[in-house]
Q: What sequence folds into this?
């Protein structure tokens, strides 16, 4: 779905009218699907002007309207027959015989629906369909339901539509309770679709549409399967403000993005004890942020495995926790949850090194090896542990055991934990080495920083450990490159921050045209990516 964001309703009406006009110019006998309601009025005004100025010709245009109340007299000033006459038909040079609107006076509404559907087919289908969107997500009168009709049908209007449309009638009781409407399949068969949304009362549904999944309770989300939909939105209907939350082992980071720019960040400590309390602490921070930034959607990155929305994370109080539902108990906004490494990859893809690329793999070197794979701009998901690149097997026989249950997982060799483990082993075997001195001075412990200190001072023992570490790191990277052929591999984590030692070694060892880069966003990548979910 392509988005055209307009400053206001006037601009929206002009933009949409221009698209309709080009359709008419390119194909003078186009079949147009037309909509009623408040939103398309401005388009019709623009089209009338263009027609009067001789810029567009309606003489061979055929139209089919989306819907009509049922029952209603065609001459009732609230009927869509009346609306279309007043707003368009009687003001342009259209042949009335070419205009079609479901008949609210039909004695047999079901037969009328069959006839209407056949008529559309007879004209070869709709070339360009204009759609408004109801506050409840309806398109045409396809109301939210557990399942949706495909073709033109008689439908009951929902309470919220009756209330929303009462503004056009003297009182709510006058609003017909039923309507004849094209079905979802009728609409989806249109070659092109223009969806219009104007005004703050549409911002919630627009956000659901842009950020939520396809679901019958917001019928407009069905449009996501159509290859050629343009959503034309004014600023009131579109809030580009999103909140990203990156849950980590020690802190939870929050990032507010407006029109894809970071405008605020904060963090709170991670609560590892109680899921309920942790969720509430996150919610409190969300509310605090909401006081200043009116975000319309939330994305959350969390460690652990996510299956059917259920999160299980070893170091967090999440065990088959439906995190999105837990948050939605308190926050009435769309919430999307994904793995934290996937979010970091998405963040780097959208805002960091991967900004101008299509396919990247982010590899985070830390306690373990994490990562995210972005192919054609989308996170590569699968069931269970797909994308858990730290658990590709790099040594089958005699491989080191991994807490995941496998042996020989990459992270057992390429994580910083593995580097330190091997460093400690080597320095104990080489007590005359600088590495051993550093180990002793640090209370018989090494860390990544000390290994790099020794490397910089030309310690042979450290160099040997590092070279072997690079070999293991490169085995996994080669596998990733061979399988996915990414534009770039982006490395993140504290050890990538130590000058160019690591990246130079990896580039030399890999000798590949694939770009090997260091993450630009590092710790911010997760929250930024989460906001983009
Ligand atoms: P509106 O209605 O343009 O009057 O807001 C849109 C719709 O309900 O489809």
A:
């Amino acid at each position: 779905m392509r988005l055209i964001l307009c400053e206001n309703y006037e601009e929206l009406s002009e933009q949409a009218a221009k698209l309709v006009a080009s359709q008419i110019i390119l194909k003078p006998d186009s079949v147009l699907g037309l909509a009623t309601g408040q939103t398309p009025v401005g388009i019709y005004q623009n089209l009338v002007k263009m027609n009067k100025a001789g810029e567009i010709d309606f003489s061979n245009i055929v139209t089919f309207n989306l819907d009509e109340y049922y029952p209603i007299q065609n001459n009732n000033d609230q009927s869509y027959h009346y609306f279309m006459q007043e707003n368009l038909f009687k003001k342009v040079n259209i042949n009335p015989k070419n205009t079609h609107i479901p008949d609210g006076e039909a004695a047999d509404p079901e037969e009328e629906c069959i006839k209407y559907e056949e008529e559309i087919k007879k004209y070869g289908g709709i070339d360009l369909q204009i759609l408004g969107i109801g506050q409840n997500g309806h398109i045409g009168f396809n109301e939210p339901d557990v399942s949706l009709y495909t073709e033109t049908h008689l439908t009951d209007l929902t309470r919220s539509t009756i209330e929303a449309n009462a503004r056009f009638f003297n009182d709510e009781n006058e609003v017909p309770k039923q309507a004849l409407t094209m079905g979802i399949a009728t609409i989806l068969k249109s070659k092109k679709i223009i969806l219009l949304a104007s005004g703050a009362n549409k911002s919630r549904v627009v956000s659901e549409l842009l950020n939520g999944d396809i679901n019958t309770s917001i019928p407009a989300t069905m449009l996501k399967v159509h290859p050629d939909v343009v959503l034309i939105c004014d600023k009131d209907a579109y809030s580009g403000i999103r909140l990203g939350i990156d849950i980590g082992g020690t802190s939870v980071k929050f990032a507010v993005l407006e029109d894809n720019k970071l405008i605020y960040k904060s963090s709170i400590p991670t609560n590892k004890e109680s899921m309920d309390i942790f969720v509430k602490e996150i919610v409190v921070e969300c509310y605090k942020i909401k006081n200043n930034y009116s975000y319309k959607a939330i994305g959350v990155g969390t460690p652990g495995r996510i299956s059917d929305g259920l999160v299980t994370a070893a170091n967090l109080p999440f065990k088959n926790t439906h995190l999105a539902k837990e948050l939605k108990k308190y926050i009435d906004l769309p919430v999307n949850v994904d793995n934290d490494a996937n979010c970091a990859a998405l963040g780097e893809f959208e805002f960091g090194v991967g900004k101008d690329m299509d396919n990247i793999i982010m590899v985070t070197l830390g306690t373990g090896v994490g990562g995210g794979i972005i192919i054609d701009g989308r996170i590569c998901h699968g069931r269970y542990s797909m994308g858990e690149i730290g658990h590709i097997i790099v040594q089958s026989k005699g491989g080191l055991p991994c807490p995941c249950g496998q042996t020989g997982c990459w992270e057992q060799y390429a994580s910083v934990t593995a580097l330190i483990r091997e460093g400690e082993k080597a320095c104990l075997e080489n007590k005359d080495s600088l590495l051993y001195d550093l180990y002793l001075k640090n209370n018989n412990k090494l860390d990544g920083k000390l290994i790099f200190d020794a490397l910089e001072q030309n310690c042979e023992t450290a160099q040997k450990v590092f070279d072997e570490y690079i070999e293991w790191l490169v085995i996994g990277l080669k596998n990733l490159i061979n399988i996915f052929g990414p534009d770039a591999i982006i490395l993140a984590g504290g050890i990538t921050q130590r000058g160019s030692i690591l990246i130079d070694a990896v580039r030399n060892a890999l000798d590949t045209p694939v770009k090997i880069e260091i993450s630009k966003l590092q710790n911010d990548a997760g929250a930024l990516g989460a906001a983009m979910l």
